[in-house]
Amino acid sequence: MLHEEYSLLESVIHITEERDKKSLAYTLVETLFDFIDVYAIVLLRIPRNFDNEYLDVSVSIPETAYQDKLKLIPHEYGEQRVALDDSLTLCIDKSEDISEVQNATQRTLFPIIVNDEITEILDIYGHHSTIHSKKLIQGFVSIYSNFLGVLDDNEHDALTGLLNRKTFDTQLSNLISESTPEKNISSSADEVRRTPKKDTHRWVGILDIDHFKKINDNFGHIYGDEVLLLFVNLMEKTFRDSDLLFRYGGEEFVVVLEPTTESDAFMVFERFRKELELYDFPQVEQVTVSTGMIKIDTQKHPSLVLEHADQALYYAKENGRNQVCNYSELISAGSLKERRVEDDIELF
Which of 4, 251, 270, 338 is catalytic? Predict the structure, then answer.
């Protein structure tokens, strides 16, 4: 008994040691899989722009369990998506545990609630529930939810709710390491995914609201904050749920696109620029944005990637504003001069 209690305590400590959400999610599922007798556990994430169409698969143990238990939704960029069924919908609507028997297998769903909002669902199969085991699961879910809330508060900007600059700086190196061609291309053997487009990469865009200081000076900071909130609301509606959105500081934002082609990346940023240009802001009326974009290059230092995106942004601001400028195109056209880097020393 003491050994079991000690193992539980070690598991709790292991969960609260994690600082990365992906690792935290995997640790939760792995821990529950070790402590309770089940066939499979799938952790499903509710998308940012949830429209009752699909959920994202965060973790699945066994790895292919979600393919066997849930209805897959193919996607060209390889995201693992599943359709909502009646049980998942009921769990979301009621915000409470749901248990049922499907094909002679017990299925139990636990909503994960962070800051009074359901963010994920723990989908467990083959669990012969007892009072002890259910309390054990609920206990780990509660620890996970609370710790996820702490991470959320630390990672997000207080005003807009977007990921903050500290989070971006922390994640940029990981984003670059994940951008190798092998990780951009989905396996052709996976029948549930469409064949992705060739030559896809992650892209970074720095977005800066044009003449934002004039908005604050002419209308006051309350209206300035309202512009920021409406700007972010439009960002969340325009960009994909799998794209990462950051408030970098003041009126400056960073978007990291999921792997896509150069032309599609430009189109995504251009679409947002046009949507913003047409949006009617209260009092202020029209707001525009300048954007500098660049491909995430695994051969470049993270700070250099961001600096080059910033150079493209500066060019956009200095040459008329309200436009999207691609760093590589500016270099090719001779509008910008690339600095040569040797041994981390920039040469001009």
Answer: 251
Q: Which residues contact 62 (CB under 8 A, 6 or more apart)?
A: 40
Instruction: Compute and round to an integer the Cα radius of gyration of the chain.
Output: 23
Asked if 277 is an active-site residue, the reply is no
DSSP code at position 345: E
Q: Match 């849930």 to its residue by tokens.
A: 70
3-state secondary structure of 130: coil
- State how beta strands 201-209 and 54-61 pair: unpaired
Q: In this predicted model, what pLDDT tens digit does every residue of 76-123 receive, in sequence order?
A: 655 688 999 999 999 999 999 999 988 788 999 999 999 889 999 999
Which backbone phi and psi does 279 adopt, to 5 degrees? -75, 135
Dist CA 275 CA 20 (whole Å): 33
Of 110, 120, 111, 92, the residue nearest 21 (C-alpha):
120
Tell me the CA distances in angstroms from 146 to 113, 116, 159, 274, one per residue in order. Answer: 9, 11, 21, 39
Which tokens is 300 given?
Answer: 């470049």
Interacting residues of 285 by C-beta distance below 8 A, sequence separation 6+: none
Give the contacts of 178 (CB within 8 A, at least 6 positions apart).
Answer: 202
Place of tokens 């070690």: 10
pTM of the complete model: 0.77
> Residue 22: pLDDT above 90?
no
- For 126, the token pair is 């083959």
CA 253 remoteness from chain centre: 15
Structural domains in the chain?
2-155 (3.30.450.40), 165-347 (3.30.70.270)
Q: Which of 198, 220, 206, 160 is nearest to 327 (CA)?
A: 206
